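can u do me a favor
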C-alpha cells in the first residue's frame, strides 16, 4: 500500500488525541451515572453485551474517521490481475520422423489436429503465428487473428528433412519481437545475430509466448539452448511439447532406416530456462488435451497499481452512518 500525497497523513496525528478525550469524557459520564442511579443499576448495565453495545458505535465511528482522513492522502494498492499472452507462435516440427505412426494417424497429423484445437480455444483478440521447423525453419503464417488463415496454414504443413529447433526459436522470436534486431542470416552462419541489450527477467514478457512441438533431437542450425537463453533474456516463455515414444522408434523409408527418439532433457531445459512448461504426449488424444489445457496455463498474473481513494471514502462514510444509526437505535442519541 502506497500513497500519492504522503504529507497528508499528518492529518491522522490529532485522531489519537480525540480518541483519548472521548474516552476520558465517557469515563467521567459513567461515574456520574453510577453515583445517581445507585449500585444496582450499575450492575445491570455492566454486562458483557451492554459493554460491547456501548463500545461498538464509537469504535466504528473512529475507524470510519481514520479511513476518511487517510483517503485525503490518495492511497494506492497493487492489484493482481490475470493476463493472457496476446501473441503466440506455434513452432511445429515437420521433420521426416513426424511420419511415425506411434501416435495415430501419424505424429504430424496429430500435431495438426492439436494445433487446430489450440487455435479454436484462444480468445478472438489473440494473434497467432505458425513456424515450420525442419532442416531450416520458416514462418508459414505471420501473426494474425484470422482463424481461417491459420487453419489453412496448418493444412499446408508438409514433411521435410532435418530438425533445427534453434532456428525455429529465433524465427519465432524475430516475429514476436520485431524491435529486437535479430539477424537471422548471421545466426544461420553460427554468428551472433542480435544487438546486446539489458536482459529482462525470464518470463516477464506478458504479451508474447512460443509453443514448440517436436519429436526428436535438434540436428541442424543454431544451438536451441542458446536460442532459449535469448528468449529468456527478452522475457519470452517457451512452452515445449514432446510427442512420441520416450524409447524412440525406428523408421524405414526408401530402403534406409533411422532411429528417432525424443530428447526430453533438452526440451525440459528450454522450458526451465524461459520459465515455461514441458509436456510429454504419447497419444493423439493426450496431445490434443495438452494444447487445450495450455490455454489455461498461459494466463499470467499481472500486478497493477490502482488508486483506492474511492474505496476508503466509501468504507469511511458507511462506518460513520452505521455507527450513528446504531447509537440512535440503542441509546436515542448520536454517539
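np, heres the sequence
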Amino acid at each position: 500500500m502506497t500513497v500519492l500525497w504522503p504529507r497528508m497523513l499528518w492529518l491522522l496525528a490529532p485522531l489519537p488525541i480525540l480518541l483519548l478525550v472521548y474516552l476520558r469524557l465517557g469515563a467521567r459520564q459513567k461515574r456520574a451515572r453510577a453515583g445517581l442511579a445507585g449500585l444496582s443499576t450499575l450492575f445491570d448495565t455492566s454486562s458483557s453485551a451492554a459493554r460491547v453495545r456501548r463500545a461498538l458505535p464509537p469504535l466504528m465511528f473512529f475507524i470510519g474517521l481514520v479511513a476518511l482522513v487517510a483517503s485525503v492522502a490518495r492511497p494506492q494498492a497493487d492489484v493482481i490481475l490475470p493476463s493472457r499472452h496476446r501473441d503466440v507462435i506455434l513452432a511445429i516440427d515437420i521433420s521426416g520422423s513426424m511420419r511415425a505412426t506411434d501416435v495415430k494417424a501419424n505424429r504430424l497429423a496429430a500435431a495438426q489436429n492439436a494445433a487446430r484445437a489450440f487455435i479454436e480455444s484462444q480468445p478472438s483478440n489473440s494473434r497467432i503465428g505458425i513456424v515450420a521447423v525442419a532442416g531450416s525453419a520458416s514462418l508459414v503464417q505471420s501473426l494474425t487473428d484470422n482463424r481461417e488463415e491459420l487453419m489453412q496454414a496448418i493444412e499446408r504443413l508438409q514433411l521435410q528433412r532435418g530438425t533445427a529447433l534453434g532456428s525455429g526459436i529465433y524465427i519465432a522470436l524475430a516475429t514476436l519481437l520485431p524491435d529486437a534486431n535479430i539477424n537471422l542470416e548471421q545466426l544461420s552462419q553460427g554468428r551472433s545475430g542480435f544487438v546486446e541489450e539489458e536482459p529482462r527477467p525470464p518470463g516477464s514478457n506478458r504479451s508474447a509466448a512460443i509453443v514448440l512441438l517436436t519429436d526428436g533431437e535438434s540436428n541442424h542450425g543454431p544451438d536451441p539452448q542458446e536460442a532459449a537463453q535469448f528468449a529468456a533474456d527478452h522475457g519470452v516463455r517457451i512452452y515445449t511439447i514432446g510427442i512420441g515414444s520416450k524409447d524412440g522408434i525406428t523408421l524405414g523409408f526408401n530402403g534406409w532406416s533411422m532411429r528417432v527418439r525424443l530428447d526430453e532433457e533438452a526440451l525440459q531445459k528450454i522450458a526451465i530456462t524461459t520459465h515455461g512448461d514441458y509436456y510429454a504426449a504419447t497419444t493423439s488424444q493426450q496431445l490434443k488435451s495438452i494444447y487445450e489445457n495450455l490455454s489455461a496455463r498461459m494466463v499470467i498474473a499481472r500486478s497493477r497499481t490502482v488508486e483506492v481513494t474511492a474505496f476508503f471514502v466509501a468504507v469511511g462514510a458507511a462506518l460513520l452512518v452505521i455507527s450513528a444509526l446504531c447509537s440512535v437505535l440503542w441509546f436515542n442519541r448520536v454517539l
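The mean pLDDT is 82. hope that helps!!
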